[in-house]
Structures are given as structure tokens and as C-alpha cells.
Design brief:
heterodimer, A: mainly alpha, 16 helices, 4 strands, B: mainly alpha
């Protein structure tokens, strides 16, 4: 009776220490493979000092990401060599996710787009890649990515897809396209309902706003210094500009009245007044452009925010 | 009965074998991390120690790895991160030597991270747990922390404890305290510059605030600018250019006047900062010399 027991003990004793955790651990030329994965030859020797399987390495990297150690995570991710598609997907997804956390959105999108359709994180990767591209100003490519994404049969993904496409259309200021996307807004899914409403509100704001005209701003400032800036929505700047030009103009007039047009003081003060007057016109044109840019930037940020929140809630 | 005994034997044997294996694995990981550290590869060493912390299930190994990781991060100058990592182990209630090391390292990292208040709190914990029984480095750190907090009286008491603990020589302790008091008095005697006073001076006598703050050149320049703009105002007004006098004379004058008041305050603040820095540097140097002296004894 003790003989079989002894054999079992002997066999168990011959197993490596981590066998209970790693399953089919075996060594192969060029690297150490566990569950089919390879940790780059030499590197595992270099920094881990002992055999690691793919799953343990990924667990460790996930743990580092969870701690916010992104530099360390990337260092390890650059050194693991996946062996099959599943592992490639994990590697690309994790690398993309770390870059997303680090706000290097272009790199994040590049890696996330490499995740294959078979991966369980395929949809998440596609949605976040599109969002990253949109945030980086490449709305056209973001649309392409989403249009090629298979949303499957889940209502959530369809609702998300509609919202993201609508948001991208607004970022592109393509109102016809937005109306077409917004037709699919159902308001029924809790993850997207509030954002769909806000997206409609953004659309109304964008559609109803009249952009400040740089030409009109310049003309107004030519007529009354500073008025163009007031028109552009920069009232304080307009009043300050008016006071400067008026003060210099009055000073020049004072010198003109007392010393005549040939006086050095008149020439100097009149030149300064003229420079400020012209500068005020140019400043008003710039103020109108700046106001438009500020409005567009503010709207873009709001749209991106409302695209982002449902993604974070859904995944 | 026979089967039960057999089963128990297997379990005992397996537990022993596997736990020994895990320990060996941890040992290997630590050795590898240590060699990375020794070769100056601190970033990779910090990852390797974190791996030990992640993989190991023994609290002692985890604390040891955490402490070693802190050393690697210190080499990289990442004191804030080291402190955050060390805080993970604050609840450790095992070996006393590790707890002492942990508290010291946390205080050190907090101090190096520019938070002497936090460092002081941690050193208070250390003293509460271990009393005056500590190495020179803890005394030195405490002295530096008290210096940064400018708690001069507390530092004097600390110096007495420090010298008495290591030399048991009351005469030496008194001598050192006297030396410290002299350094402090010498530095503190250097003229203080109150920013409020500097602003007040410049309000009534243009440029005098800057002179008070030790920047006579700037004071003269500011006073001259104010006089020149007032002169221009007067000249224009006397010649009948009233509007021009207001805009081209009084306008610049008010800029020079109010700007001068503000500048005087800023200069006095900068002077105070520099004076304080010199005092702190002198006291720190004294503390380092004291540590060397006591170590030599």
C-alpha cells in the first residue's frame, strides 16, 4: 500500500516549485514558455531572475498598471514576446491602455487598433482607439474606426456607437451627419441617455451660434477704437483699448493746439496715437478670431467629455 | 487509519516541499534584484523588488523588498514615490528592526521630498516606540528636520540628547549647545528686512524701501524715475499742455510710484529668504560636523 504512495510523492517532488500555479510549464529553446507564452530570452534572466509564465507576467503588469506605475509597466511590456494571437492582443491592449493612462493618445490608438476581433477586449479597444483619435483631432479616422467596428447584437454597444458617431459628427461640425446619427438616439440606455441629451444641447448651441466676424470687428474698431473688441465679447479689452487711444489722441491734440503740427512732441505723440489706433484695429480682428476659437475649443471639450464618460462607465 | 496517516504524511511532505520551493524562488528574486541594484541599474532593480513584493506571501520578505525598493527609488531621486510605497507597510507589526527601518526610511523620504512636517511626525512615532535608542542617522535626520522647521529651542534640547546619548559627556554637550547658539545668534543678528516696513518706506519716500531691502541701486533708479515723470508733468503743465501733462506725466508717475512700493516689498521678501537660507545652511553644516565628530569618538 505504501509503494504507490511513495511513487506519488516522488513524482510530485520532481515538479518545479511553481507547478501548482502555472499548469503546463515547460522549457523551450529561445525562451521560457508557460501557457504558450515567451518572456523574451535574456530579459527574464535580466530582471526577474526566475521562470515566469505569460499569465504571471501579465498579472504583474496589470498590478503595476493598477498602482499607476506606467513607466514600469511599459518597460516590462516592451520586453515580453507573445507567441500566439491571444497574447499579442493582450500585449497590444495593455500597451494601448498604459499609453491612454499616460495621455499619449496617438500611441494608445495605434496599439489599441492592433487588437484583433477575437479578443474579449476588442470592442473596448476600438471604442477607446476612436475616442483617442477624436481627442487628438483626427475625427475622420475616428469615424472610420467606428464604422468598421462590429458592434454585435448588444444594445449597449449600438447605443455607444451611435453616441460616439454623433459626437464625432459634431466635432467635425457636420450637422447633417449628426442629425442622421442622432436619429438613432433612443434615450433608453442608462449608460448613454444623459449624454445623448447633452449632445443634443451641444448641437443646438453650435447651430444657433453666430460666429464673430473679424472683418466687422476691425471695421467697428476703425470707427470707434475698442468697439470691435466689445463686439467680439472682450469688453474689458475694448474699454482699455479705447482709453489708451483716447489718452494718446488727446495728448497729441494738446501738443498740436499749443505748438502746431511741426512740433516734435506733437509728431511723437501723434505717431504713438496712430500706432495704438492701428494696433487696436488689428487686435480687434484677432480678438474676433480668438473668440471663435475659444468657443469651438470649449464646445469640443464638452463633446469629448460626453463621449468619454459613457465609455468609462460601459467598460 | 492507515490511509488517513498516509494522507497526512503526503500533505505534510507537500507543504514542506512547496513552501521551501517558494522561499527559494523568493530568495532568487531578491538576489537578482540585489545584483541589479549593485550594478547601478536602479530602475530595473525597483521593478525587481516590486516583483518580490507582488509574488511573496511572507510579510517579512514583502517588507524587506519594499525597503530595498525604497533604496533604489532614493537612488533615482524619487522620494515621493518611495514614501508612497513605504506607506503600504506601515501596518506591519512584525520584527522590530524592520519597523524601525521602515519608520526611519519614511521620515527620510518625507524630509527629502520637502515635507519636514511629515518627517517630524514620523520621527515622533519612532521616538514614541523606541525612545532615544537609535543610531546617529536618526539623530542627524531629526536635527535636520527641526532645522527646516526652525524649531530652534527643540533643536537645542535635541542636541543635548544626541551628544549625551553617544558620549555621555555633559561638558561636551554644553560646549556643542553653546556653539550652536553662537551660530544661530550670529546669523540671526544679520539685519532682518520686513516686507511691510519696506513697502511703508517706499510709500512715503520713493526708493527708500528698496534701499532698506539692501538694493540701493534699484532704489535710486526708482526715485529718479518718479522725479523725472513728475518733472515732465510739471513742465508740461507750466507750458499749458494740461491734457498731455496728465497722460504723459502723471500716468508714468503713478506706475513708477505704485510699482516702486510693490518692488520694495518683493525685494525685502527675497532678502529675508536668502538670510533664512544662510542660517539653515550654517546650522545644517554644524549638524553634519557634529555627526562626524561623534562617530569618530
Amino acid at each position: 500500500m505504501t509503494k504507490p504512495l511513495f511513487v506519488v510523492l516522488l513524482l510530485l517532488h520532481m515538479l518545479p516549485a511553481y507547478s501548482s500555479d502555472t499548469g503546463n510549464l515547460f522549457k523551450a529553446p529561445g525562451g521560457i514558455i508557460g501557457h504558450g507564452g515567451v518572456i523574451a530570452h535574456g530579459h527574464s534572466e535580466q530582471f526577474s531572475g526566475y521562470d515566469h509564465t505569460w499569465s504571471r507576467e501579465v498579472d504583474f503588469i496589470r498590478y503595476l498598471i493598477g498602482r499607476g506605475d506606467y513607466r514600469e509597466s511599459l518597460f516590462l511590456l516592451e520586453r515580453v514576446v507573445p507567441e500566439n494571437n491571444h497574447q499579442y492582443d493582450s500585449l497590444n491592449y495593455l500597451t494601448g491602455w498604459v499609453h491612454y493612462q499616460q495621455k499619449t493618445l496617438d500611441l494608445s490608438a495605434t496599439y489599441l487598433l492592433k487588437v484583433s476581433k477575437e479578443s474579449p477586449v476588442y470592442r473596448k479597444s476600438r471604442f477607446f482607439a476612436a475616442y483617442n483619435l477624436a481627442h487628438d483631432g483626427d475625427a475622420g479616422r475616428a469615424r472610420e474606426v467606428l464604422e468598421l467596428t462590429d458592434a454585435g447584437s448588444d444594445n449597449l454597444y449600438h447605443a455607444l456607437l451611435g453616441l460616439q458617431l454623433g459626437g464625432i459628427a459634431l466635432l467635425e461640425r457636420d450637422y447633417a451627419q449628426y442629425s442622421s446619427n442622432a436619429a438613432d438616439f433612443s434615450g433608453n440606455h442608462h449608460v448613454t441617455a444623459a449624454e445623448e441629451q447633452r449632445m443634443e444641447h451641444h448641437y443646438d448651441q453650435l447651430r444657433d451660434r453666430r460666429a464673430a466676424s473679424p472683418f466687422i470687428a476691425g471695421m467697428l474698431s476703425a470707427a470707434v477704437p475698442g468697439l470691435g473688441k466689445v463686439y467680439a465679447g472682450k469688453s474689458a479689452e475694448g474699454v482699455a483699448g479705447f482709453l489708451y487711444v483716447a489718452a494718446l489722441g488727446l495728448t497729441a491734440f494738446d501738443f498740436y493746439r499749443g505748438s502746431g503740427p511741426d512740433s516734435v512732441l506733437f509728431v511723437l505723440s501723434a505717431s504713438a496715437a496712430g500706432a495704438f489706433y492701428v494696433g487696436n484695429i488689428v487686435g480687434s480682428v484677432a480678438a474676433a478670431r480668438r473668440t471663435n476659437q475659444e468657443f469651438n475649443h470649449e464646445m469640443d471639450q464638452r463633446i469629448l467629455f460626453d463621449m468619454h464618460i459613457p465609455l468609462r462607465n460601459a467598460f | 487509519m492507515k490511509w488517513t496517516n498516509g494522507f497526512c504524511l503526503i500533505c505534510i511532505f507537500l507543504c514542506g516541499t512547496l513552501s521551501e520551493g517558494v522561499n527559494a524562488q523568493t530568495e532568487r528574486m531578491i538576489k537578482r534584484a540585489d545584483s541589479l541594484f549593485a550594478s547601478g541599474n536602479y530602475f530595473e532593480a525597483s521593478i525587481a523588488y516590486e516583483r518580490v513584493y507582488f509574488e511573496s506571501e511572507e510579510s517579512v520578505s514583502r517588507i524587506a523588498a519594499n525597503l530595498k525598493k525604497a533604496q533604489a527609488l532614493k537612488q533615482l531621486g524619487e522620494y515621493e514615490k518611495a514614501l508612497v510605497d513605504l506607506r503600504r507597510s506601515i501596518t506591519y507589526r512584525g520584527e522590530d528592526s524592520l519597523r524601525r527601518e521602515l519608520l526611519y526610511e519614511m521620515a527620510f523620504c518625507a524630509y527629502m521630498d520637502g515635507d519636514p512636517g511629515d518627517a517630524y511626525g514620523l520621527l515622533r512615532q519612532f521616538r514614541h516606540l523606541y525612545g532615544q535608542d537609535s543610531g546617529q542617522r536618526v539623530y542627524l535626520l531629526e536635527g535636520l528636520v527641526l532645522t527646516d522647521l526652525m524649531r530652534w529651542d527643540a533643536l537645542s534640547d535635541h542636541l543635548e540628547n544626541w551628544v549625551l546619548y553617544f558620549s555621555d559627556d555633559t561638558r561636551l554637550a554644553n560646549e556643542k549647545i553653546l556653539c550652536y547658539t553662537e551660530i544661530l545668534a550670529e546669523k540671526e543678528q544679520q539685519a532682518r528686512r520686513d516686507p511691510e516696513k519696506a513697502r511703508l518706506w517706499s510709500t512715503f519716500i520713493p526708493g527708500s524701501g528698496q534701499v532698506y531691502a539692501g538694493e540701493a541701486g534699484w532704489g535710486i533708479l526708482n526715485a529718479f524715475s518718479q522725479l523725472a515723470s513728475l518733472g515732465a508733468f510739471s513742465a508740461m503743465a507750466l507750458n499749458g499742455y494740461y491734457v498731455a501733462a496728465v497722460f504723459a506725466g502723471l500716468g508714468p508717475f503713478q506706475s513708477f510710484y505704485f510699482g516702486g512700493i510693490r518692488q520694495a516689498g518683493l525685494m525685502a521678501e527675497a532678502h529675508e529668504k536668502s538670510r533664512r537660507g544662510k542660517t539653515l545652511a550654517a546650522v545644517r553644516e554644524f549638524l553634519f560636523n557634529l555627526e562626524e565628530e561623534l562617530a569618530a569618538e
